[in-house]
Amino acid sequence: MAKQKGRRSEDGNGAEAGSSSPITDDDLHLFNEGTHHRLYRKLGGHLSPDPDREGAHFAVWAPNAKHVSVVADFNEWSRDAHPLHPRGDSGIWEGWIAEARKGSHYKYSITSHVEDYHVLKADPFGFRHEEPPATASVLWDLDYDWKDGKWMRERGERNAASAPIAVYEVHLGSWRRDSNDPGRMRGYREIAEELADYVRELGFTHVELLPIMEHPFYGSWGYQTTGYFAPTSRHGSPQDLMYLIDHLHRNGIGVILDWVPSHFPSDEHGLGYFDGTHLFEHADPRKGFHPDWESLIFNYGRNEVRGFLLSSALFWLEHYHLDGLRVDAVASMLYLDYSREEGDWIPNEHGGRENLEAISFLRRLNEEVYGNHPDVQMIAEESTAWPMVSRPTYLGGLGFGMKWDMGWMHDTLEYLSRDPVHRRHHHHSLTFRALYAFNEHFMLPLSHDEVVHGKGSLLSRMAGDDWQKRANLKVLLTYQFLQPGKKLLFMGGEFGQWSEWNHDAELEWHLLDDPAHEGIRRLVADLNRLYREEEALHVGDFDPQTFEWVDANDEEASVLSFLRKRPGKGHSEEPPLLVILNLTPVVRDNYRIGVPRGGEWTEILNSDAVEYGGSGRGNLGAVETAPVSRHGRHHSLVLTLPPLAALVLQGPGGTDSGKDADPGESHP
Above 80 in pLDDT, residue 10? Predict the structure, then answer.
């Protein structure tokens, strides 16, 4: 941080602080109008940049305070030893403390004008905090020698809409524990090499970390954030996290961070009721209290709060080299009546339920992020039919790069939990997605939310006996990778964990000793390879040219078939991929299916293969077409469809033969 000499305020207040302040009058103006998006450079505790001068500058926003001081281990936690001084009418209190050192533990002591309220608060802009349950901030720097220059120069291609993006979602505290002490969580550096090797072996392109910002309650998985500028100390220092990200980058793996601007906890040391007033949150509980999570909601209409959140987003991207942010609970931000009964919410100025301030904030967020870092991705967890979530703001959209397809996840899991004998009555659950698949830039998630709160694991939710459950899971995973859209899979799903996710224990790694579970993991690795290598499966993830039904209507047999194709003019010569799903445990011999090209079609993936723990039924590697019309096409294949399985066949190169036969033709 470059040292800047601040100007003395006109009213004389803060003269002592201003003489050594890095905060200029311009900073104050931008802060109060909500357009300062690097506030972490000015507010919080900052060590002296001058090697010949020890100490640190502290600054905190507390406009309704009558007294603010730094209490710390270097002053025996005295309220009177190191008072801060107000900087004009900006609401900021600041001061220089020569006794402060790197590693000093501190809080802000705040006495409010409101009813003489007094409280100790952690630093909202602190770069490090004590390991919970302790709650003090730790004076720290962000120095780190990054070695991921090659990744950073090339990551725009890795994060592009046309790139293969397959995300492995990880909760660091429960991915792997210490083998000698299962109760001990491993550090960022300890995890780095093993995680990188595992993800690279499986072929995922990115890791998404559940929120690693500091949070007091471990059981919140990071979604109840108090430290919006600090990684949790449960796994080590800021530099340790930087090492983990750096190591993943050097292994060709991107890193996305789950970020939570939708709500925050009410713990006394946190942001709530910060200076004796509702500073960060809305005062009216109809707007400021979240009934689902019993947490507080940011006041998106307040300039300084918007600046705080925008600064947090840019901070993680810039100082931790992150490749994107997954923004949590966007739906709860968009709707004023989200999870509220009639009378428990306040309509907007037009009488509607839309949260206009949150909408404005989200648009500004995405404009700032993409304007500064066009090579990253902003991903919305948004579960409603809100239009144009992943469309540019200049077109009226929210400006995200992608949106989670929660509808696909819900419909598909519900379908596969049904007994196959009943599936023919619910065939539309699988075909409905095609009606909206390209309305947004979708990511298909099988996330942590689907394996908690009594839902069971993905495997346990599948229908049938143990063999059928595993077969259904393999169909689910194959269907996910072959549908248009980017992919996300929560840890444990890749090898078929039986138990619901437990954040207090590591994954059931012992299951990989069972060939049936190792087979699921091997299938996921092959799906990732296929997704990366076949441009038809990723270049046009958001392009309707890449998807075409062959037969969406064979509900009686519970069979689904479609084509994936390379998009764009000039690619008609490239071989298409044919995907067929048999969603019953019945082997279907002599199943005829129409295809766009004559010649040999090669079976390049079969989820029922023996190496995946299947029965080994299939088509002996390749099938030749016959000049028999089916599904409106001149050529057709006669296939064996394995039980509860997905097939992928690659067609010959050449030009599609057209679709001029009678689409209503029956099986010959």
Answer: no
